[in-house]
């Protein structure tokens, strides 16, 4: 197992390297440069040239890349032109915020999705199944940024139960309870779509497993229905669902961009969007690297968990 | 399963009982900003969003008189200008201290400008200073005595005093710049009405009252600036009570605040002009009659009312009315007259040749560029001008338009926000300002008379005399129609009803020195 994980991690390194090169090339190919973005209307060729020189951007792209790479090995991701602070500080702070949001959304959607899926499979065609399917379909088909705004209107503006935006209260905030309070609405919004996907998939997997012979055998042996469903059927269905949860982790990370914008959550998705529009190459580079590394790790984790549950895969 | 449900309900209950601190405390104003600031070092920033904080932390040698774009003394008590307009001598206010306790004096002023302009200055590496060219006329700053400082210019440059009032001219504490280096932008120190207290990235910037402010300590104890990039979220936060002041309210939402007695809505036209650059070098727009026809064909009133929903006024010429002293009141906007446009097109022998129109997706001061672009296209179609739109993202758009329209397009959207009536026409309407000469005259308009008026207006230091030259220039440019003059944007803000003395300025700066919020 340890060897397997080590191999997978090693294989990820060239992927990440390739990615940094692609980001560099794309950023070089799209028109516009940071100096133009900073100067806006005042971007005369003369002013742009001077500012690019001051920013160290007048060197050839290849040279810039190797300077960046050299610094990377020393743990230095450079300084953001648009934020005037070290990229590493910004990226880590932002990534941590996204991790909290996406992580809790993932936990939420996994738990809710599995429960809903199991209930609707076990009680197939009952009113509970129909109700769950109905809610789940609404969840899947609702654009998350719109859902977020609706939740804000209902629970923040009208009922005033939850704050509208941010991660901590502006005054006297800061504790874990304050964080949870701010986290609730964005996490629920972000989880909505993924919950639906997981619930639908769990339902299908469960239905398939419940038709298997060994389930009939288990029932025939006189095992309680509870035991049949949770011990025998659910565990087998989980094997099919886990990789989907791994993929959903990627969607949740990606979907976080909208949610972060709507709830003003200081995450890495909204940072990347801004960084790209202002041509802040180093910030884009640092952000993409961290997100990609996280994506690789999530998928690896999903595979490892799957192997642990299903001995056949070892 | 049951345990989980119980735990979930318990957690939800806990969340609901946690207090919601949506109401803001008395004597503290929470301002909704549109983005995270880049830096609080005034010499290094270019965005209005950052200026909204800076103008409350720092002072310049001059400032804009309340409600106008005319300069008045600030850190400089008075000044004299040499007869040839090249030497400015400032008498500085005495007894002023920076927030860190160091003295404001002539040495500090010299430090500020040398830092921006001299590459060998020890603090020049705390840049880059993208707008340093505002002061490119400055040849030498010298200390005459502790409270007298002299600026020597390389040529007469009348906008100098007004540039000193611009945020790029705000005075920072030399002691703190030396101590903090590039980190100064995150731990700033000035002489202004509010001191910097805290900057929590992506959450808030907090300023507190400067009890020793030379112009009288402000009524507010603190200001909190919160970056909220999404306009809908900003509105929700305002409605939930988490903001006291909010700027750049989308036009759709203004009405709901107007009808609500808990809020006040403010609007103020600023030094902004939205126009179409016409390619006067080649194609149909090389003919003045076709350019005038475009001005007649486009229904600016409808654009302002329907597309911009009353958040702008129809522009008459190249100079925004906010520059009251330099604006020619007699100028009437081109009326919407499709018949006249058709007649002019026929006179010019326009043969229905297709026109390429550059439209941007967004960008600073561009308002609603795509909707405006399509409305303009429809208006021109009406009089028989076939227009093909090409849409670009803002940075790409600038990269296409700023080097000039020749060989690429016949017209392009553009908007400028400036601090002096000199800036825009000088940079975008002179023959010497063609793109290949480093200017912004992307449509290649050239009229020697306008060139002369603009050059002369820089050399004259008397304001009334300058005003006369600018008014003449506006008459000629309107007649020549190098642009389609479309709109002047009105800045807006919404505040809670309990916020007192809040005003918007024509400079678009958010001056909070006199604002109070006792409740």
TrEMBL record, chain A:
The chain crosses the membrane at residues 9-30, 95-119, 131-159, 179-201, 236-259, 281-305. PROSITE patterns: ABC_TM1 (PS50928). It is a multi-pass membrane protein. Keywords: Cell membrane, Membrane, Transmembrane, Transmembrane helix, Transport. Residues 95-301 form the ABC transmembrane type-1 domain. It is found in: Cell membrane. Belongs to the binding-protein-dependent transport system permease family. This is ABC transporter permease. It comes from Pseudohoeflea coraliihabitans.
From TrEMBL, chain B:
Keywords: Signal, Transport. Residues 1-22 form the signal peptide. Residues 70-428 form the Solute-binding protein family domain. It is found in: Periplasm. Its main location: periplasm. CDD domains: PBP2_DppA_like. It holds the Pfam family SBP_bac_5. Belongs to the bacterial solute-binding protein 5 family. This is ABC transporter substrate-binding protein. It comes from Pseudohoeflea coraliihabitans.
């Amino acid at each position: 197992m340890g060897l397997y994980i080590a191999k997978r991690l090693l294989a990820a390194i060239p992927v990440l390297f390739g990615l940094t090169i692609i980001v560099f090339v794309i950023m070089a190919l799209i028109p516009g440069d940071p100096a133009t973005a900073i100067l806006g209307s005042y971007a005369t060729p003369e002013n742009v040239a001077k500012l690019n020189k001051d920013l160290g951007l007048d060197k050839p792209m290849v040279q810039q890349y190797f300077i960046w790479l050299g610094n990377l090995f020393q743990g230095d991701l450079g300084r953001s032109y648009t934020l005037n602070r070290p990229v590493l500080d910004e990226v880590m702070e932002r990534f941590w915020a996204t991790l909290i949001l996406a992580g809790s959304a993932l936990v939420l959607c996994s738990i809710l999705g599995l429960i809903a899926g199991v209930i609707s499979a076990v009680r197939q065609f009952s009113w509970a199944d129909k109700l769950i399917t109905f809610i789940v379909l609404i969840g899947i088909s609702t654009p998350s940024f719109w859902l977020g705004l609706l939740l804000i209107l209902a629970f923040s503006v009208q009922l005033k139960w939850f704050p509208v935006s941010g991660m901590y209260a502006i005054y006297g905030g800061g504790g874990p309870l304050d964080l949870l309070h701010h986290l609730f609405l964005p996490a629920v919004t972000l989880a909505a779509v993924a919950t639906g996907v997981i619930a639908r998939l769990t339902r299908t997997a469960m239905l398939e497993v419940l038709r298997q012979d060994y389930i009939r055998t288990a029932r025939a042996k006189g095992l309680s229905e509870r035991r049949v469903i949770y011990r025998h059927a659910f565990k087998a269905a989980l094997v099919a669902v886990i990789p989907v949860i791994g993929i959903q982790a990627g969607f949740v990370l990606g979907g976080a961009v909208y949610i972060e914008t709507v709830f003003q959550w200081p995450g890495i998705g909204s940072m990347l969007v801004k960084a790209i529009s202002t041509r802040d190459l180093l910030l884009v580079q640092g952000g993409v690297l961290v997100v990609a590394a996280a994506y690789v790790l999530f998928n690896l984790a999903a595979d490892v968990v799957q192997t642990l549950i299903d001995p056949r895969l070892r | 399963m049951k345990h989980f449900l119980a735990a979930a309900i318990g957690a939800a209950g806990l969340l609901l009982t946690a207090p919601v601190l949506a109401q803001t405390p008395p004597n503290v104003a929470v301002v909704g900003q549109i983005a995270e600031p880049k830096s609080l070092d005034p010499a290094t920033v270019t965005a209005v969003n950052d200026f909204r904080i800076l103008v409350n932390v720092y002072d310049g040698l001059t400032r804009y008189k309340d409600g106008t774009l005319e300069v008045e003394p600030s850190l400089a008590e008075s000044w004299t200008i040499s007869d040839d307009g090249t030497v400015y001598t400032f008498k500085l206010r005495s007894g002023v201290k920076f927030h860190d306790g160091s003295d404001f004096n002539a040495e500090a002023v010299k430090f500020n400008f040398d830092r921006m302009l001299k590459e060998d200055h020890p603090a020049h590496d705390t840049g880059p200073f993208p707008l340093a060219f505002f002061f490119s006329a400055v040849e030498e700053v010298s200390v005459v005595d502790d409270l007298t400082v002299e600026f020597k210019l390389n040529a007469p440059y009348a906008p100098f005093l007004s540039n000193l009032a611009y945020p790029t001219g705000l005075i920072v504490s030399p002691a703190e710049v030396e101590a903090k280096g590039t980190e100064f932008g995150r731990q700033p120190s000035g002489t202004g009405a509010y001191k910097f207290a805290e900057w929590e990235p992506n959450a808030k910037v907090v300023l507190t009252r400067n009890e020793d402010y030379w112009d009288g300590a402000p009524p507010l104890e603190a200001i909190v600036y919160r970056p909220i990039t999404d306009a809908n979220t900003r509105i929700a936060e305002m409605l939930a009570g988490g903001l006291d002041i909010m700027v750049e309210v989308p036009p759709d939402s203004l009405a709901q605040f107007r009808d609500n007695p808990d809020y006040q809505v403010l609007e103020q036209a600023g030094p902004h002009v939205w126009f179409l650059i016409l390619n006067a070098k080649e194609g149909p727009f090389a003919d003045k009659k076709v350019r005038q026809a475009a001005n007649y064909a486009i229904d600016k009133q409808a654009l302002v009312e329907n597309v911009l929903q009353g958040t702008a006024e129809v522009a008459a010429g190249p100079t925004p009315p906010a520059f009251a002293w330099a604006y020619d009141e007699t100028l009437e906007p081109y009326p919407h007259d499709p018949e006249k446009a058709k007649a002019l097109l026929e006179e010019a022998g326009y043969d229905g040749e297709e026109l390429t129109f550059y439209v941007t997706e967004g960008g600073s001061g561009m308002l609603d560029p795509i909707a405006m672009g399509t409305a303009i296209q429809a208006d021109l179609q009406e009089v028989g001008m076939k227009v093909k739109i090409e849409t670009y993202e803002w940075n790409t758009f600038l990269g296409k338009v700023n080097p000039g329209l020749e060989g690429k397009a016949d017209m392009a959207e553009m908007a400028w926000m400036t601090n002096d009536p000199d800036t825009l026409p000088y940079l975008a309407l002179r023959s010497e300002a063609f793109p290949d000469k480093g200017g912004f005259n992307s449509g290649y308009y050239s009229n020697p008379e306008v060139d002369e008026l603009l050059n002369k207006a820089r050399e004259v230091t008397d304001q009334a005399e300058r005003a006369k030259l600018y008014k003449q220039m506006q008459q000629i440019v309107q007649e020549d129609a190098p642009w389609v003059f479309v709109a002047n944007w009105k800045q807006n803000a919404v505040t809670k009803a309990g916020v007192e003395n809040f005003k918007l300025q024509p400079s678009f700066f958010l001056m909070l020195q006199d604002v109070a919020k006792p409740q």
